[in-house]
Amino acid sequence: MNFKSLLLSLCTAAIVVAQSSNYGGDDHTYIAPGPNDLRGPCPGLNTLANHGYLPRDGRNINVTTILDAGFNGYHMQPGVLELAAKVSLLTSDDPFTFTLDNIKLHGNIEHDASISRVDFALGDNARFNETIFTTLAESNPGDDHYNTTSAGQVQFLRLADSQAKNPNVTNTDKEFFIRSVESAFYLSVMGNPLTGVAPKEFVNIFFREERLPIAEGWKRSETPINGSTIGPMYRKIQAASNWTAGEGCHWVRLGSDDPIVDF
Ligand code: HEM
Ligand SMILES: *[C@@H]1O[C@H](CO)[C@@H](O)[C@H](O)[C@H]1NC(C)=O
Ligand SMILES: *[C@@H]1O[C@H](CO)[C@@H](O)[C@H](O)[C@H]1NC(C)=O
Ligand SMILES: *[C@@H]1O[C@H](CO)[C@@H](O)[C@H](O)[C@H]1NC(C)=O
Ligand SMILES: *[C@@H]1O[C@H](CO)[C@@H](O)[C@H](O)[C@H]1NC(C)=O
Ligand SMILES: *[C@@H]1O[C@H](CO)[C@@H](O)[C@H](O)[C@H]1NC(C)=O
Ligand SMILES: *[C@@H]1O[C@H](CO)[C@@H](O)[C@H](O)[C@H]1NC(C)=O
What we know:
This protein is mainly α. It is built from nine helices and two strands. It has a two-stranded antiparallel ribbon with strand order 1-2. The chain is globular and about 45 Å long. The model is unreliable at 3-23 (pLDDT under 50).
């Protein structure tokens, strides 16, 4: 076991280094990744790379690259991406950069009971899987939109499926927090960041094609997506998800306002 996997397997804290600079110069049309381009478990970042807001090869990504891309592509303010960007540095061997593939490291951000990927112990935890995505695709029947209620129900069903099939399932408050924020992210970037209502068509294209549905009428949110919008939204999703904690420890305090156990 090397030092990094030891670090990730313990209930310990991590110190990471932030950096600053810029990335740009692209017309942001959609281009599917080529054979040498890296992609990973995050549909949000894969989409930004497919549109050139992140390096199209999926490599050499630093904290600033992420913050700029999230702002330019989705109107997300730095505060809602900083934590994920910093934690992701732990997934690579380079101290200052990571690739979109690196971040599939199980137990860093990557978790079980994902809404579009298979659990690490059961298969490919990085690639989109239509079978897994069926739960989300079939949610909120009779409505053309997903919302915080349906997102919570999807999380409940996906966790139940993992608990039934994966003896290695990890379900602590850390995973619950991350999963709920990710749900708030897809509702916000593909829908209305204030109401959490997102057109199914846009969300489905985002996950299945990792493409911005501009041709279908999607626009970058005029409302900035920040802690004031994401906070209340992920709590509504949590309330609708009927969650109960499993075993395991919250290995790192996920930021200065992370209450760790008391949500
Ligand atoms: C830029 C805006 C972002 C959006 C819209 C977004 C959206 C999402 C969504 C919806 C998922 C859930 C996928 C699933 O459960 O199948 C996800 C997963 C993930 N995201 Fe992001 N994300 C964003 C930023 C980030 C950042 C900044 C990082 C780290 C640098 C990150 C890393 C991950 C990872 C590692 C996963 C996999 C978690 C898992 O399912 O196990 N994301 N993201
Ligand atoms: C972050 O990455 C960008 C794009 O590759 C680069 O221009 C910048 O110098 C990097 N910043 C740091 C602090 O390494
Ligand atoms: C699942 O857990 C068992 C028991 O802890 C362990 O031996 C095995 O390596 C784990 N498998 C995976 C894929 O994590
Ligand atoms: C997708 O997930 C299903 C259900 O877990 C699994 O049977 C199937 O092998 C996965 N497909 C791929 C391509 O990994
Ligand atoms: C989500 O949509 C369903 C179906 O239209 C509706 O019953 C539910 O109240 C909605 N949830 C929210 C939070 O608006
Ligand atoms: C989020 O953006 C809104 C609108 O610009 C602003 O009023 C609010 O203070 C911001 N919240 C945070 C946490 O930055
Ligand atoms: C909530 O979870 C509990 C325990 O897992 C279960 O018994 C109950 O049926 C669930 N309720 C809903 C509405 O899903």
